Amino acid sequence: MKRKVLSAILIAAMTLSLAACGSKEAPADTQAPAEAEEPAADAEEPADAEEPAADAGSGDLITVGYAQVGAESDWRTANTESFKSTFTEENGYKLIFDDAQQKQENQIKAIRSFIQQEVDYIVVAPVVETGWETVLEEAKEAGIPVILSDRMMDVSDDSLFEAWVGGNFVKEGETCGDWLADYLESQGRGEEEINMVTIQGTIGASAQVGRTEGMANKLAEHSNWKMLDMQSGEFTQAKGQEVMESFLKSYDDIDVVICENDNEAFGAIDAIKAAGKTCGPDGDIIVVSFDSVKAAFESMIAGDLNATFECNPLHGPRVAEIIQKLEAGEEVDKIQYVDEAYFDTSMDLEAILAERAY
Ligand code: AHR
Predict the structure, then answer these.
(1) Which of 32, 118, 192, 237 sits CB 3.0–4.6 Å from 263 for a disulfide?
(2) How far is the CA of 21 from the centre of ligand 1 (A)?
(3) Is 235's C-beta closer than 6 angstroms to any atom of ligand 1?
(4) pLDDT for position 56
(5) Same fold flag, 62-167+314-327 and 169-311+344-355
(6) 76 CB under 6 A from ligand 1?
(7) pTM for this one?
């Protein structure tokens, strides 16, 4: 909004000066110079009939376009809620929210629409890591800062985004592998041949890439662990169930299923029970997953899920802090990892669940 105010002032000033000179030619450069983006603090938004509809009436609010992945999981619902409850008019923001339904092309369209609407900031939780350069260059050209949240983008030029905040997905995968080693040891199965399958997340998403990589690092440390198969469950419960059904048909000796999010685990547990098998600490198959949403605690309390490795979705306030620092002209850390824990059935899960925010 501030950028637009300044552009309007500069364009008006240029028009007046050209009129005074009697020139009929438009100047080649009628854009506000990049370094002069901050207007006087008390500059008012002029009444402007040419403002795009979505920006109309935002007053002094900071307009933020959020290109969300979709609504595929409990985690994602909590993440959306975190943004919607943070970027409110009471807090000084106008949020334009877009649900990409897990499709990168929809996110690219949303980012282009945010650029066209001249938002003040673009926030993206990218569906996958690659394929963003062109649209980020368009945002940069338009002078709109881009902040990445949750998943990462793989771009050659890191000046295309201001900052990223999210979980350390490789570390989450490694924590899962370390937990599994300790758990098997505690069960007297440390030296036993262990057959595993993985229900991966959306292929190419940094949450999938990192968790798979972290677990692969731990697999390399245990010659008695065998990964029988890996297939994507798209981070959804329905697909998690479908993939587990197919694993159970192909392999009759699965010891461990690693689900790259909790919702896939809920589907996998349904598939295991439907196949007449059991799971959890007292069952045939060890089930572990990532996210640590409330329903995962309920599943552990019910004795179905063994452990869940946390991925914190409450990024709304973290992104707001980055925006406030940028507004104040302060430096922000480019890469900001969030601290994350894990939870298993040896803990007082009822007490933890009672305090859980998501
Ligand atoms: O990027 C974070 C992952 O995306 C979460 O693990 C998952 O639930 C979500 O869909």
Answers:
(1) 237
(2) 59
(3) yes
(4) 37
(5) yes
(6) yes
(7) 0.85
Q: Which atom of ligand 1 is nearest to the CA of 70?
A: 10
Residue-level pLDDT at 18: 33
Could you tell me the CATH superfamily of domain 169-311+344-355? Response regulator (3.40.50.2300)
Domain 62-167+314-327 has CATH 3.60.150.10: no
Model pLDDT, residue 31: 29
Residue 37: the pLDDT is 31
Q: Which atom of ligand 1 is nearest to the CA of 125?
A: 1
**Cα 340 to Cα 331: distance, rounded to the nearest angstrom:** 25
Instruction: Please state the domain extents for the chain.
Output: 2-58, 62-167+314-327, 169-311+344-355
Q: Does the C-beta of 232 come closer than 6 Å to ligand 1?
A: no
Is the separation of the CB atoms in 345 and 297 below 8 Å? no
Residue 49 has pLDDT above 80, yes or no: no
Ligand 1 contact via 256 beta carbon (within 6 Å):
no
Is the pLDDT assigned to residue 29 strictly greater than 90? no
Mean pLDDT to the nearest integer, 14-28:
32
